[in-house]
Amino acid sequence: MRVKYVDLPGQYLQQRQEILDAVDATLRSGRYILGEPVEEFEQRFAALCGVRHAVGVANGTDALILALKALDIGPGDEVITAANSWVSSASSIALVGAVPVFADVGADYNIDPDCIRDVITPRSKAILPVHLTGRCADMHAINAIAREHGLVVIEDAAQAAGAKLGDHAAGAMGDVACFSLHPLKNLNAAGDAGALTTNNNDLAAKLRQMRNHGLANRNQVDFWSINSRLDSLQAAILNTKFAHLHTSIERRRRHADRYRAGLADLVLCPSARTHAYDTYHLFVIQCAQRDRLKAFLKEQGVSSAIHYPVPIHLQPSSRHLGYQPGALPVTESQSAKILSLPVHHLLEDDQVDYVIDCISRFYTRG
């Protein structure tokens, strides 16, 4: 049996006519920059996150950079984040001239609030928690720390569209939140796309201007800024995905439950949380002999991935920050054991069972 880690062609075929109709309507309109598709997307995405404002931008990295700049974070400032994320969580901080400061993570792969306290300095200006794998970080504790120290909170919700912590959605628990809508995400475009969310009216207005060169109107530039407008075609495609999002997330959650039941005695699986709605952008196990297991699964026709094998603080790009191996023991220990199993919504139960069987055979037969 072949089990794909992702199946983007299959996803397209599932919605082919809807997508083609949306693209055709956009091309016929002649409005290719901003316009109605983007406005519709922003309204739908704000409703999904339970916030007043969503601002569509070109990609998730731009969303992070614009959020940092909009909150006046720059040279001399420190921003606390996690090192087990995709590189843009930290690189965006560096790209505005600030310094990424890494705090260790907990068993759920998310930043540990107690470790945040350990790295706060007089130069700290923001906390940037990452809702890794579609699982919200402990925002109650993080927001309490931020209030105590006068810090702003920027949610990196790139992997968490549709996730919740209690009654609060990802994107509604910080001063501003940043999303990627990359093809591999649960809510995905057919290319790069991103969004920011906030309940702050002034901040939303500033972000809309910042994504469009700092233009007040066609002939007046109030400040220098970048061009990071969400493409109208991508917005039109994204608008076809909202009706399917809940169903696809529920299928991912069902696959996660099936993995947990079948692998409980073999590997460490992410726990089921009753107080949260986890969306399983990734299903990450921790396992012995990770690299050998990954190779064995490939031999059996099962694709898997590692998110991420080298933490950001140990990357060559971070060398000047002075981190040494052992600086973040939980992050580093997890990075040697983590493996992401296929969990996408097009999987069938027998494919999930096949993955479980392969892992069982690997460990029981040595």
What do you see in this structure?
- 40% of the residues lie in helices and 15% in strands.
- The mean pLDDT is 98.
- It has 366 residues and is of the alpha/beta class.
- The two termini are 22 Å apart.
- Helix 7 (139-149) links the parallel strand 4 and strand 5.
- The chain has helices at 8-14, 16-29, 36-49, 60-70, 88-95, 113-119, 139-149, 201-210, 232-239, 242-263, 290-299, 329-335, 349-364, and strands at 53-57, 78-82, 99-103, 124-128, 152-156, 164-165, 168-169, 176-180, 194-198, 215-217, 220-221, 276-277, 283-286, 338-341.
- The strands form 4 sheets. It has a 7-stranded mixed beta sheet with strand order 1-9-8-5-4-2-3, sandwiched between helices. It has a 3-stranded antiparallel beta sheet with strand order 7-6-12, with no helix packed on it.
- 46% of the residues are buried.
- The chain contains 13 helices and 14 strands.
- It folds into 2 domains: 8-239, Type I PLP-dependent aspartate aminotransferase-like (Major domain) (Aspartate Aminotransferase, domain 2); 244-364, Aspartate Aminotransferase, domain 1 (Alpha-Beta Complex).
Residue windows where pLDDT falls under 50 for at least 5 positions:
none
Based on CA atoms alone, the radius of gyration comes out at: 21 Å
Can you identify the CATH class of the largest domain?
Answer: Alpha Beta
CATH architecture of the largest domain: 3-Layer(aba) Sandwich
What does the average pLDDT come to? 98
* Portion in beta strands: 5-15%
Morphology: globular
Fraction in helix:
25-40%
